Amino acid sequence: MSAATTRSRTPDRLCAEAVDLAREAAEEAAFPGVVGEHVTLFAEGDRVVTHLFEAKEPGYRGWRWAVTVARASRAKVVTLDEVCLLPGPDSLQAPEWVPWSERLRPGDMGPGDLLPTEAEDLRLEPGWTGEDAPPPNSLLSEEMERQAARSQAVESRALADVAEAEDAELTAPIAATPPVRGSIASVAEELGMRRARVLSRYGLHLAADRWDEEYGANTPMAQAAPATCVSCAFLVPVSGSLGQAFGICANEFGPADGHVVSLSYGCGGHSEAAVMPKTPKPVGPVHDSMAVDAFPLRPDPEGGSVPDAADPASEDLGHS
Predict the structure, then answer these.
(1) I need a surface site. Which of 40, 43, 297, 313 has the fewest CB within 10 A?
(2) Among the listed residues 190, 186, 206, 62, the one whose alpha carbon sits nearest the alpha carbon of residue 132
(3) 91 pLDDT tier (thresholds 50, 70, 90)
(4) What pTM, to 2 d.p., does this model score?
C-alpha cells in the first residue's frame, strides 16, 4: 500500500474551516434561501473535505447539499472542487427502477399500445415453421408425386389404347392429373397450429393458475354458491385441454359474465339454484251452448212475492 492510503482520514484544518466558501458555492448552484444549516463534514482524502448543508427545496426532504473543497500541497488557499445534491439517511427517494417488462401488470395496456414478446419467452414455443416441404420418404414429397404422376400417365395411355381399339370416339388422350393430396399447411390450419409460436405447457399452466385464482373454487363467491359451474346452463364449454377444467360464463347478471371460470367456481346466478314456478293461467269462462233454458211469456201469479189482495195494515201506513 502507498503512503497516501495509509495516512489518517483526519480532515484538513484549512479545508474544514472553509465553511463560508462552501456555503457560497452551494447558494450559487441552487439559489439563496434553500441552503440550510451546516450539518457535518468529512475527509475525502488528503486535503480534500466535503461539507454538507441542509436542503430546503420542496420535494427534497432529507437531502443535503454536498460541497467538496481541496487544497494543494503546501498551499494556503482553499479551492472549490465540486457541488452536488446528495440524499441523506432519511431522505425521500424514488423507488428502485424496475424494467417495464417486470412492472407491467394485467390491465395496463390501452388502445393503440403494443406489447412486444421476447424471442425466448417461456410461455411460447415454436409452432408451424411455414415450410410446406415434406420429408423425402413422405407420401407428400415431390419425388413421390412425380412417380404417382408417371404411373397415372402410363395407366391413362393404356386405357386410351384400349378405348381407341373398341371405339373410335374414345381416341382422345386422358389427361394425367396426379391425385389431390393434402398439404402440411392445410393440416396445420385445421389443427389451429398455423402460427409462428403457440402457447407452451408452461404458459398454459400460468394462465390456468391466474384464472383459477380469480374465478376458482377458493374464492368467497364460490364458497357461498349453491352449486358449481359444471352443472350450470350458462357455462359455455371451451375446446382443447382447457375444457377439462374451465369454461366461459354467459350469464349477464353473474359476476363472471364473459370471463373464463373454473368448473368448480359458482355464484348465486346458477341456472338451477332457484327456479321460479310458472305463473298459473286463469281458467277461461265455460259456455254451455247445448242446453235450452225455458223462459215463460207470462209470469206465474202464484210465484210472486207480492200478494194480489191489499193488506189492511199496509194501507194505514200509506203504502199502495
Answers:
(1) 297
(2) 186
(3) confident
(4) 0.41
